[in-house]
Amino acid sequence: MARYDENPHSNAVLRSRLSCINLTVIELESKLEALRGEQSEIAALLDDIVYPVLSVPPEIKLRIFAFASASPVLGNAEDYRELDSGPLLLAGVCRDWRQLVCGAPELWSTLRIVQERKRSNTRQLVEAVELWLLRSAARPLQLSFSSQHVNRSRLAPALASCAPRICSLDWEVDFDATIDEALKGRLGKLQYLGISAGSRWTAFESAPQLTHAKVLLWTRNPQLPWSQIKYLQLSFATRDPDAILRFLLTTTAVETLAADDNHVSLLLPTLATEASSPGVLPNLKHLIVRYSVRDFQYLWNPKSSLDFLLLKEFLDVRLEPQGHEAAKIRSLEIVLLSHEECTEEIHLAKEMLAKGGFAEKGLKIRVASGR
Fold first, then answer.
1. Considering the chain, what is the average pLDDT of its residues?
2. Per-residue pLDDT averaged across 282-297, rounded?
3. Rounded to 5 degrees, what angle do the CA atoms 181, 182, 183 make?
4. Diameter of the chain by CA atoms?
5. What's the confidence (pLDDT) of residue 99?
6. By C-alpha distance, which of 221, 181, 178, 182 is closest to 198?
7. Are 221 and 246 in contact (CB under 8 A)?
């Protein structure tokens, strides 16, 4: 008997096919409804997270952004990591944030320029710096430069144009004649300077508001307006006591002196030897010394305590200023640098200072931990 092939367009076949399609539609609609329900739940959860941020007034956002971008960096690391941070990252979040960030000069008034990679695009970096400075509008600037691998002649025009607004400058690399010339006569608002003294800088001599300096001392004294420097943070690249003494003889107006870690041990012998000299720090009133806990344990060991003995010799003289022309020292601050508790070391420092009898002579003493 011959096989009968049913007509695909017959009533029965079409109804069967339509029934299958209807069932599929019902299943898909059910799944779609479930997905829409889940979508609504997730959207509600996101609203709980995002809406409070979106509803924050712009002025509050800017305060938050200022804390989030307190130390912005522009440049790259030697291992090819891009170091760009601060407002650049915030501006990349969304269009609204970008508009807000780019229109807030206060977020662009601080910048650290880093270029550790030897083969880097100087032009691209300089253009980024120029745009950054443009966005800072007329705000006072705090700049830090620690780049060894950038064409500074290309950077000089950008620095020259913004120099009248620089209130803080940390130049962590070697002297550069092009930069020196670009800054000369333009630093009318400079108040803080960090500099390597093994150089021939002349631009900073005519900075009328400069009162705070951080100096890395080599063998050559920096040319700074020492008659107006009140606060000095000092470190050494030389162990020559004569070079240290020559330098201290120039710091006639310094009232606060801060020294870090092993640099304290290079400074104290000269301070002890020249304690009664009216030419060495004659206006010093506040002394700050910072030690790593490890160095403190060695240098303030009760069995030797060389640093303490040198410090005591200096303080004994400067707390009794009647015999010389130097000012009476008023305060001593010892900071122990550690990421952990250093209760024992703090107690040891306080105990040794108490035995020195300094408080009885009117010296205000503070011992604390820091990072």
1. 85
2. 89
3. 90
4. 137
5. 92
6. 221
7. yes
281 Rama sector, left if φ>0, alpha if ψ -120 to 50, beta otherwise: left
The tokens of 161 are what?
């144009």
Our CA dihedral for 245, 246, 247, 248, rounded to 10 degrees, sits at 50
Amino acid at position 231, single letter: Y
The pLDDT assigned to 121 comes to: 67
Taking residues 297-307, report their average pLDDT: 80
The model's confidence at residue 92, banded by pLDDT at 50, 70 and 90, is confident
Q: What is the arithmetic mean of pLDDT over 76-101? A: 76
End-to-end CA distance of the chain: 99
From the CA atom positions of the chain, what is the Rg in Å?
A: 33
Query: What are the phi and psi torsion angles at 62 (to 5°)?
Result: -65, -35
List of residues 6+ apart from 45 with CB closer than 8 A: none
Q: Which band of pLDDT confidence, cut at 50, 70 and 90, is reported for residue 36?
A: very high
User: Cα separations (Å) of 95 from 90, 98, 100, 241?
Assistant: 10, 5, 9, 59
State the amino acid at position 104 in one-letter form.
Answer: A
Three-state secondary structure readout of the chain: CCCCCCCCCCHHHHHHHHHHHHHHHHHHHHHHHHHHHHHHHHHHHHHHHHHHHHCCCHHHHHHHHHHHCCCCEEEECCCCCECCCCHHHHHCCCHHHHHHHHCCHHHHCEEEEEECCCCCCHHHHHHHHHHHHHHCCCCCEEEEECCCCCCHHHHHHHHHHHHHHEEEEEECCCCCHHHHHHHCCCCCCCCEEEEECCCCCCCCCCCCCCCEEEEEECCCCCCCCHHHCCEEEEEECCCCHHHHHHHHCCCCCCCEEEEECHHHHHHHHHHHHCCCCCCCCCCCCEEEEEEEHHHHHHHCCCCCCHHHHHHHHHHHHHCCHHHCCCCCCCEEEEEEECCCCCHHHHHHHHHHHHHCCCHHHCCEEEEEEEC
Exposure of 213 in the CB half-sphere (CA atoms within 13 A): 28
Position 278 scores a pLDDT of 83
Percent of the chain with pLDDT over 70: 91
